[in-house]
Design a protein that fits this description.
By secondary structure, this protein is an alpha/beta fold. It folds into two domains: 215 residues, 3-Layer(aba) Sandwich (Rossmann fold); 60 residues, Alpha-Beta Plaits. It contains eleven helices and 13 strands. Helix 3 crosses helix 4 and helix 4 crosses helix 5. The longest helix is centred in the middle third of the chain and has 16 residues. It is elongated, with a radius of gyration of 24 Å. The C terminus is likely disordered.
Length: 308
């Protein structure tokens, strides 16, 4: 388990992390989300003892990381895909990490096989693509067969096969009872991978909730209806207690009634229905909705069609 208690980090007048409190439980994949500048990387670095908190504590298995015996056997982490020396081979890099942590040499071969790098084991890291460096970083994180895994943007540079592989790996590790904390900006991937979400903005906690609850609370759901008589159906549905909004092309966006009830009301009114689609906002849309006021580095929206 990872426990964050009133954790803060200040750099002069700037506060990067501001009184964070949350727990990352074993047995599930926890997504750690937030806009750029939210404090995610700083928090991960404090968990790993790479930054000293200005206040509060970050504990792994009840201890600060620096006090863990055999830390690589307890926590595996990928924070920077470029951490390996470019002149070393993948095998020599992993062998050095294993030796310095008193890990058996056989683990090098095992993690090379597990991450798909066996055929590139003797190549210099400097010749690797970003995706291969990500795999190497994950291999290093897995060397100690740790109970806790921290991954910062692990899918960067991976091809579709690699993304599917890391998604499956994280879910399998969580199913074994391990603690998996992953930070990512790729919302579509988090929607498929994370069981639980911790969302921060401007260094503060916004929400700590199961993914399904986050979507249900933050995302609008409706039913898209296309039919032969949209104006008449809108009146019928409104009489039935629905809220109806017109969309482009004559479609109706309906809330307050499920697709089956909408279809029955349309049939009762003699209106032909061409489409009934239940729509739920994506994790990206829900994330944008809930973090809209916590974006530190936003982009101004301009109308490029206007002439000064």
């Amino acid at each position: 388990m990872i426990e964050i208690r009133e954790l803060s980090r200040r750099y002069g007048p700037r506060t990067a992390v501001d009184g964070l409190t949350f727990t990352v439980a074993p047995g599930r994949v926890t997504g750690f989300l937030g806009p750029n500048g939210a404090g995610k990387s700083t928090t991960l670095r404090m968990i790993l003892g790479l930054e000293r908190p200005s206040a509060g504590r970050a504990l792994v298995q009840g201890r600060p990381y620096r006090e863990l015996p055999d830390p690589l056997r307890r926590v595996g982490a990928l924070l920077d895909a470029d951490a390996a020396h470019p002149g070393r081979s993948a095998r020599s890099h992993l062998a050095a990490v294993a030796a310095s942590n008193r890990l058996p040499a056989r683990r090098v071969t095992e993690v090379l096989d597990a991450t798909g790098l066996a055929s590139a084991a003797r190549r210099r890291v400097g010749s690797f693509s970003l995706g291969m460096k990500q795999r190497l970083g994950i291999a290093a994180a897995l060397l100690g067969d740790p109970e806790v895994l921290l991954l910062d943007e692990p899918v960067n540079g991976l091809d579709p096969e690699g993304i599917h592989w890391i998604r499956t790996l994280m879910r399998d590790l969580a199913a074994e009872g391990r603690t998996v904390l992953v930070s990512s900006h790729l919302m579509s991937e988090m929607a498929l991978t994370a069981d639980h979400l911790i969302v921060i903005g401007r260094g503060r906690l916004i929400t700590d909730t199961p993914t399904a609850d986050f979507l249900a609370a933050a995302a609008r759901t409706d039913v898209l209806v296309r039919c032969s008589a949209p104006e008449r159906l809108a009146r019928v549905l409104a009489d039935g207690g629905a809220s109806v909004r017109r969309e482009d092309g004559g479609a109706l966006a309906v809330t307050g009634l499920d697709p089956r009830t909408i279809g029955e009301l349309a049939a009762g009114a003699g209106i032909g229905v061409h489409e009934l689609t239940h729509r739920t906002a994506s994790l990206e849309e829900a994330f944008m909705e809930i973090t809209g006021t916590a974006v530190e580095f936003g982009t101004a929206t301009t109308d490029r069609t206007r002439t000064p």
